[in-house]
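Troubleshooting log. The previous structure file for this entry was overwritten by mistake, so regenerating from the original sequence record. Sequence copied from the archived sheet and checked twice against the printout by T.R.
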Amino acid sequence: MLRKLERDFVAADLAAVEGLLSNYGEDVDPIGFLQFTERKKRLQRQLQDLDNLIKDQLEIGVFFDGPPVDHRYGISAEFCGEAIALLSALMAPHGRLFVTVLGRRTIGLLLRVGEEGVQSAAYMLPIDALDRVARNPHTIECLDQSILDLLNLLKKQRASMRIVCGAHDFTLDYRMAASTS
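Regenerated output below.
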């Protein structure tokens, strides 16, 4: 998620440089034109490098809300630990997750795949399943026990968990667990 933001920043910078180059002829200022052309090449390389990193490294943003969250102080360590343990168990067949960044203004954290060479497509299977539950919580028959455990924790604490990963951005809410009981 942080790399995706960095990529967006580099892409915006590249667009600005390309805009300058389109309005800036080599005949007007040959040195300036050369500098902007070199900057464009550097930004294109940086963008390609970030695209490769993003493709190879899966990051999952997890944000919490509800009674376990006190926006002045943080989140209940017990609840957060249990929620992350359940999410990690759901992802366990595909490798290990690591907490890399704790949110400052929002109550959340960033999980990153720890193994090199692990295909991020494998990690997307549980994320896809959670997203399907978020869109249609009445699909009880397709729910894996790990997902049920996570929903039951949210229900017990009357909490919600927002997950952002790649193109996915969804919220699991404690009210969804009521439909799985």
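The helical segments are 2-23, 30-56, 77-91, 120-135, 145-157, 174-178. Archived copy saved in two places this time.
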